[in-house]
Amino acid sequence: EVQLVEFGGGMVQPGGSLRLSCAASGFTFSNYTLTWVRQAPGKGPEWVSDFPFNGDNPHYADSVKGRFTISRDNAKNMLYLQMNSLKPEDSAHYYCTVGTPPAYWGQGTQVTVST
């Protein structure tokens, strides 16, 4: 059974940083592209970043490029998202997903950027 468990969200002031983590199990982690997707209230899902399984460079949405860094640890079955210079518009529920298009989603973790 595929399981994805995200953690590390919280409330932070604009300009602050958070590091999201995703613990994966139930599939061969190193064989899949892993993706972060976010969804703000009243909006559809937004692709944020993905880390290909094949050694290609990660990809980022223009809205987060230069501020967010995705990484993965295949030995630990972990996916990460380092988020710096956070803005109020980054506030959303962040999900770790696997597959292209995403076939499995975790329960997500909430990020709130506010004064």
Topology, pairings included?
Blueprint: E1 3-7, E2 10-12, E3 18-25, E4 34-39, E5 46-51, E6 59-60, E7 68-73, E8 78-83, E9 92-98, E10 104-105, E11 109-113
Parallel strand pairs: 2-11
Antiparallel strand pairs: 1-3, 3-8, 4-5, 4-9, 5-6, 7-8, 9-10, 9-11
Description of the structure:
By secondary structure, this protein is mostly beta strands. The protein has no helices and eleven strands. The chain has strands spanning 3-7, 10-12, 18-25, 34-39, 46-51, 59-60, 68-73, 78-83, 92-98, 104-105, 109-113. The strands form two sheets. Strands 2, 4, 5, 6, 9, 10 and 11 form a seven-stranded mixed beta sheet that branches. Strands 1-3-8-7 form a four-stranded antiparallel beta sheet, with no helix packed on it. The radius of gyration is 13 Å and the shape is globular. The mean pLDDT is 96.
- Fraction in beta strands: over 45%
Low-confidence stretches: none
The SS-based structural class is: mainly beta
- One letter per element, helices H and strands E, the order comes to EEEEEEEEEEE
What is the number of helical segments per DSSP (H or I, 4+ residues)?
0
Q: Return Rg in Å.
A: 13 Å
N→C terminal distance: 40 Å
* Average of pLDDT: 96
For the report, how would you describe the main beta sheet? 7 strands, mixed
DSSP summary, beta strand count:
11
**Helicity, in percent?**
under 10%
Broad shape:
globular
Short description:
With 115 residues, this protein is mainly beta.
Identify the notable features of this structure and list them briefly.
115 residues; mainly beta; seven-stranded mixed β-sheet; globular
